[in-house]
Structures are given as structure tokens and as C-alpha cells.
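## retry 2 of 3
previous attempt timed out at serialization; input unchanged, resubmitting
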Amino acid sequence: MALVLHKKRFTELTTDELYELLRIRNDVFVVEQNCVYQDLDYDDQKAIHLWLTEGEKVVAICRVCPAGTHMAEVSIGRVITTERGRFPSIISPLHIGWNPTHQNDIFKHQ
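## retry succeeded, writing output
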């Protein structure tokens, strides 16, 4: 089945999309990795959210924050490959639309 790339600003996310992205972050960071930290940091509102679906299932997510959000440069974070998107295929940030040579282009109007 083909992978489909989704790219949205925070204000463009539907309630269901936002819930699914946050649910996945919670499942992986808190439950699987036992990383207890404050995930919701107000950077989501400034970020571009990228995710891949295979059919109806999300298989990878990340967010790209503009320069000056919490780092001097554009930064990519909250990178997750769900269990379904893990082996045998490994999904990298390049697969989900990250191109470091055009890092500022991601924030231009879609």
C-alpha cells in the first residue's frame, strides 16, 4: 500500500487529526519509552506537522519548528515511527518531507 504524506499547520489540523497525533506521541514517548516530560510545550502552534499514512493508519509523524521557536535554526522534533511503520521498512525524516537544503521553504504558504 502506498504511503501518503500529510502536511498541515496547527490551525489547519482537524480535531481528530490533532487527537491522533497527540495520542501517538503519548503512546510512544510516555508508554513505550517511559519518558515522563511535558510534551505539550506551545511549539505545536508554531510548527508544521507532517505525517505519513498507509491506508487509514498513521505510520510516522514529526513536527518542524521555525527558527527562533526554541532553537536558533529550523528544528525537527517529535519524530516517531509507529509500530506499523517500523521494520522491515524504516521511515526517515526525508520520507516525511524534510529536506534540509530547503528547510525554510516548509514554512511558506502551501
